[in-house]
Amino acid sequence: MPYSTTQKAAAWLVHAFTASGIVAGFWAIVCISEGNFFMAFLMLFLTLVIDGIDGTFARMANTKEVLPNMSGQTMDYVIDFATYAIVPAYLIYAATIDGIPISEGGSYLVPEELRFWAAAIILLVSTLYYGKEGMVSNDYYFVGFPVMWNMVAFYLYYVYQFPPLGNFIMILIFAILHFVPIKFLYPSRTPKFKHTNIFITVLFVVSNVALLTIVEGKYDSALAYQIMRGLSLFCMFYFAATAVYHTWWDSDTKIKK
Asked: Could you read off the pLDDT of 128-181 as tens digits, one per residue?
C-alpha cells in the first residue's frame, strides 16, 4: 500500500534519530582526546538512551514497511559496535585514574604496558561476539555478556577503585563472559518482567548520570554520592541476579541441556 508523505517523513526522522547516536559517539572520542571524561561518558549515556528508545519509535512509525530499503537494524549494529566497543576501548586506553594527567604523576586506568592489549582484547572479543550466531536468543536475551564496554568503563572509572592491574583483570573476566552461555536481559525486548526490567534500566541510567555529575561537579555531598552509588550497584546486582535466574532457575527461560 502507498504511504503518505507524512508517514515517510516520520520514518526518516526515526532513522535520523537512530543515526544521531554515531554523532554522539564521535563527540565522545573528541572529549576523550581532550581529557574531558565527564562529557565523554555523558555522550556514551546519550547513545545508550537513543539505542534504548529508537526501536519503540521505529515500531510506532512502522519504518520497515514505510521505508523497506532502509535497515534500522543494520544501522543499529554499526552504531552499537562503535559506541559500545570502539569508543570505550579508546577510553580505557586513554583514561587515567581520577583524571590526573600522567604528566602530573597520574596512573593509567590499566597498567601502561597493557593499555594496548586491553583495547585489543575488547575489540577482538566484541567483533567475535557480533559474528556469533544466536547472539540474541529467540526469547530475547543476550547469550553471553553483551557488548557493553561503555558500562564496564564507567564502573571501572567511577564506581570501583581497583588498582590498574585489577582493572585489567576485570576486563579479562568480562571478555571471557562474552562466550559463557549465560542469558542476560535485553531490557527493551525481554518479555518476562518487562516493566520491572525497564524501570530498573531507567533507574540505572539516572543513578549513573547523577553519580557522574556529583563526582565531576565535585559536589560536597557524601550522602548524595552514597545514595547514587548504592542505586547504581543495586541495578548492577539486579542485572547479574536476573542473568543467573533466567539461565539456571526459571523453568520458562533456563538453558536446556
From this structure: 999 988 889 988 999 999 999 999 999 999 999 899 999 999 999 999 999 999
- From residue 148, how far is each of 59, 62, 105, 127, 189 by CA, in Å? 24, 28, 30, 12, 16
**228 pLDDT higher than 80:** yes
Asked whether the CA dihedral 65, 67, 69, 74 is positive or negative, the reply is negative
pTM to 2 decimal places: 0.91
Angle between helices 164-177 and 115-130 (to 10 degrees): 10
CA distance 18 to 79: 8
Nearest to 156 by CA among 177, 173, 141: 173
In sequence order, the 6+-apart residues with CB closer than 8 A to the CB of 200 are 187, 235, 238, 239
| Alpha-carbon radius of gyration of the chain | 19
Number of Cβ within 10 Å of residue 124's Cβ equals 13
Nearest to 62 by CA among 138, 1, 20, 140: 1
Listed by start position, the domains of the chain span 5-249
Burial class (CB in 10 A: 0-12, 13-18, 19+), 156: buried
Q: Dump pLDDT digits (tens) for 48-92.
A: 999 989 988 999 999 999 999 999 889 999 999 999 999 999 999
What is the Cα–Cα distance from 221 to 105, expressed in whole angstroms? 27
Which pLDDT score, from 0 to 100, does residue 251 have? Answer: 83
Which of left, alpha, beta for 105 (phi over 0: left; psi -120 to 50: alpha)?
left
